[in-house]
Amino acid sequence: MPVLRRAAKSFIISAKFSTSTIRNGKNGFKVAVLGASGGIGQPLSLLLKINPLISQLALYDIQHTAGVAADLSHCNTKARITGHTGPAELKACLQDADIILIPAGVPRKPGMTRDDLFNTNASIVRDLATAAAQTAPKALVGIIANPVNSTVPIASEIYKKHNVYDPKRIFGVTTLDIVRANAFIAEAQKLDVNQVNCPVLGGHSGVTILPIISQCKPSVNFNAADLKKLTERIQEAGTEVVKAKAGTGSATLSMAFAAARFATSVLEALGGKSNVIECTFVKSDVVKGVDYFATPVLLGKNGVEKILGLGNLTDFEKQLLEKAVPELKKNIDTGVEFVKKSKS
After folding, report:
1. Which residues are catalytic?
2. CATH of range 3-172; options 1.10.10.60, 3.40.50.720, 3.30.750.24, 3.30.420.270
3. Of 26, 131, 182, 275, which sits with the fewest C-beta atoms within 10 Å of its C-beta?
4. What percent of the chain has pLDDT over 90?
5. What is the DSSP string of 274-309?
């Protein structure tokens, strides 16, 4: 079996794709990727192209979209590819989309935090969210562009401005934190990584990332020193990649993998599959004084079906939460204030 076909088959099996989950009379779903020519957008689009739940994959970027679309269209899988370049073609990309994924934005470089990206990426998310709210207000929206702690509130405030806000339909894609936690725990404990599932709560940067290792399945044990070290590695894993790439980029491949996993879960829920759960950053009241928070969420045909809460936390995890809250609140407020001051 050719290498690419083996890889595609492996990904499909591991993600538990199933065309039988499509029960809404459609032959598949339309997914729009905004930022499809970028470092995350290209591998994400490839992974989505091999997903049999997708019948149309609409790719948008401000440049090079035609080449990416042509390249992917040569893959002999179900999804039909359309390419859209520049603001004049954005509406056509979004029209009738079931899911909109937004990886658009500039990547981190050495020495940069996610907050350093804010001024550029905030404007990008604002403009794309405006187009989405106007063209496909019922689509489920997955925000990948960093800083997620701020860009999700930006998108939400834009939807409010257009009177189409539904908090169940806007998600911050924090799946990379779960993917990393699972990989690192499996490595440390010599476990089958496909059997490891560790929830990660909070937000998607630094101390706001809260790996809840006490709730990991299967159950794992670490001494205090190793637990602290592992927690900090998960929190700073993005910086680990930025440093390793030495100025050439940030986490693109792992982010694409994680975003494809999240998209698959949303697609399965849209198709009628029950008990689909992912950790994601959404409008939430699980933590007092914080308007958005990542927890395990039960997904359904309309997006968030139920927020599953924090679960029981250890003293160590409660300390992590206490440290995360003020930083997370600051990030959220930054996003909200940006929209209030924006002319768009």
Report:
1. 204
2. 3.40.50.720
3. 275
4. 84
5. SSEEEEEEEE--SSTT-SEEEEEEEEETTEEEEE--
